[in-house]
Amino acid sequence: MTLGVGILSHERRASVLRIVAAVRELSAEPVALVVADDGSGDGTAEAGRAEGVRVIAGERRGPAWNRNRALWHLLTAGCEAIVLIEDDLVPAQAGWDREWADAAERWGVVSHAPGDRAHVRTREGGEGTAKDPVRSPEEPAGALGVSRAALEAVGFFDSRFRGYGSAHGEWAARARRAGFGAARHERALPRKTRTLCIGGGLEPLADDGRGGDDEELAGNRRVARRVRGGTLYRDPWSGDEQRRAFLAEQRLTGVPDGGRVLRVRAVAAAPSSGEAIARTELVLLSLQPGVADPLEEHVLRRTAPREIDAAPEFLTRVSGGLVDGTDLLALNESAGEVLLDAPPAAPVELRPLGLAAGARGTLTRPAGPTADGGERAVLAGIHGRHAPGSFWLELVPRLLLARERGILGDAPVLVPPLRADEHAALELLGLGGLDLRTPVPDTLHRFGELLLPGPGVARARRACPAALRRTRAALAPAAADAVLPRRLFVARRDALARRTDEDALLELLYRHGFEAAWDDELTQPERIHHFARAEALLVVQGPWLDGALLAPEGAFVIELVAEGATAGEIERGWTLTSALGQRHAQVVCRRAAAGAAPITIDLEHLDRVLLTLLG
């Protein structure tokens, strides 16, 4: 287990340097160390950096914000347990770190037992060790040990608290609600017990009597009353302005904008319109024991987030273009290029034509004939029929963009095979009159001129945010039915029937205010009316994209993904919700056995996830 140590500082340069030295000298195991400095003017940040310590510093914002500085950094560093130490406590015993790591793992949340622990012990019991902590009616805040599981459940300190007072107590109350700390103790505890405390090898430094004034304390008590009983999970910021300021501080230390708890996606503007693409936040949760987070290597360990790229414009005009009818694989015969390298369902023979190999290996020529497709065509689809989400993320945005720019004209539009409900969606969008053609399988179709998206679009999984938002606006009903449910579980009956726990699953979801929307039984107009007012969608990774597209801006899309999901599977939903300005959570689940449903849903953990995200 990697222990993270966060030293919390304000105007105590000498104390911070002493604590840093003690952590380095007395820790039995390597620890991740960071100093969070809250607007000190005494050179604390500079002195810490001179000692080779990572320092996160910013303007004075109070203890709640400063604690979040350290928590975010240490979560991003991959720490499984974290201890926050105020600048008036110092490690004084060798191996102090092992005691805190053990206590955090056992209880989820522990605090430091201040002063005369013997007096507290005579009232509440406990030896002040990780195995037998003091049970205290107080909520001491000098040092806090917390596990990653607890932070993933309750999140960060509420940034609405400014200055001293109440922030620690409010956070600790949420931790108890989530079943950590005193709530986890196996013994029957007095009702007045609030906190489990350990000595943990920490000793106090000289107390300068620093604290909040009466006005500051009273203001935070009012905040505590206002936020009491709110959602269990809290972000480390309140609003976009605070989010930008918080992440800017982290970037100055070299920390990427994210951690395993929360990720903020940076995006670019679409150059075709100059319109800024909506930003979105992705909540990352892995609450099931032993399940590895598939996003960790792909997203969280990267030094910089990959931007959602520009709109998938029709930029390439090819003379003498070839299209393979199996997968709409476009080729430039004259230049010898594979222009779109979506993986074909079967090998495609092209060596006799002298065409270059695609990124996925050498291509071979099909046994079928070559057909004359005509003078001109527009290729609007990339993937074949088996690519989830390609209809909404690729085909529809391109058709809308091409129509808007007058590109289509009378030219036939080459598309993959479409289902009846997809044809119905095109009718609703006013695209039903297009000359849609699906090329004959295993045949190379030659066109005098072929207009198609530029190379690499398939690999980049680009979406056109402006087109997606216009699609949603065009499909939105004039007036949504007010009696329809606001929280929807999007599923197919045939998939759900493979689950042995379907009754228990539906009962759990009903308790959280969800109702099932059976995707295989809804017509397109019914989908539109069901999703138009949705505030939350719970979906299994895969056939859910049209539901997210029809949900309003700000809706919360909670996606259940299987461990070991590919980067493409991970980014598909993220790309869509980013473009639509929706919140997006991915919850990692165990992959089911062969022949069963795609994932195994642990109902106890799903209950905890929904409580964490939605309250």
UniProtKB/TrEMBL annotation:
It comes from the Bacteria. Gene3D superfamilies: Spore Coat Polysaccharide Biosynthesis Protein SpsA, Chain A. Residues 117-144 are annotated as: Disordered. Residues 117-138 have a biased composition (Basic and acidic residues). Residues 7-101 form the Glycosyltransferase 2-like domain. Signal peptide: none annotated. This is Glycosyltransferase 2-like domain-containing protein. It comes from Capillimicrobium parvum.
